[in-house]
Every structure is written in structure tokens, then in C-alpha cells.
Recover the amino acids of this structure.
């Protein structure tokens, strides 16, 4: 996913991925992007703020989707907005 590279290099501050509920994310689609974003100082979790688990097989079991952001501060704001949307 080249979109993670765009966040890591600073050309975007945020990437949100919310696929249909029946879709299961695959580890190989996100593992390299996770490494690039985190090493650049960004944060990547599922939409519930849970860490992504790349060691549980071929699928990522995520809550609603994936949030990748360029900074911890922005990430916290996005997760708070998503949580408020659910209330």
C-alpha cells in the first residue's frame, strides 16, 4: 500500500481505511506500511485504537478499519472523533 509511504514521507498526515464489514484485512497488505509509518514517527492502529497484531495468521482482525497518522497527537484526535461517532 503506497498510501502508507505517502504518510511516512510527510506528503499526507492521515490515511483512513474502512473496508466493508465482511472484508478481512490481510497481514501482507499492511505489515510493510506499518513499519514505514512507525519508523517515520507516525502511529498506526485499528479504528478502536488497538495495536495491529501481525502474528496471528494471515488476517488482521481489526475494529472497523485502520488508522495511520503522521503524529501521535493527530492519531489521538482521530480516534476520539471515531469513538464519539459511535456514541
Amino acid at each position: 500500500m503506497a498510501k502508507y509511504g505517502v504518510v511516512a514521507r510527510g506528503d499526507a498526515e492521515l490515511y483512513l481505511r474502512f473496508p466493508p464489514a465482511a472484508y478481512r484485512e490481510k497481514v501482507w497488505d499492511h505489515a510493510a506500511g506499518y513499519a514505514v509509518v512507525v519508523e517515520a514517527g507516525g502511529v498506526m492502529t485499528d479504528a478502536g485504537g488497538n495495536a495491529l497484531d501481525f502474528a496471528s495468521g494471515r488476517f488482521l482482525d481489526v475494529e472497523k478499519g485502520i488508522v495511520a497518522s503522521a503524529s501521535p497527537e493527530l492519531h489521538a484526535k482521530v480516534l476520539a472523533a471515531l469513538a464519539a461517532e459511535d456514541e
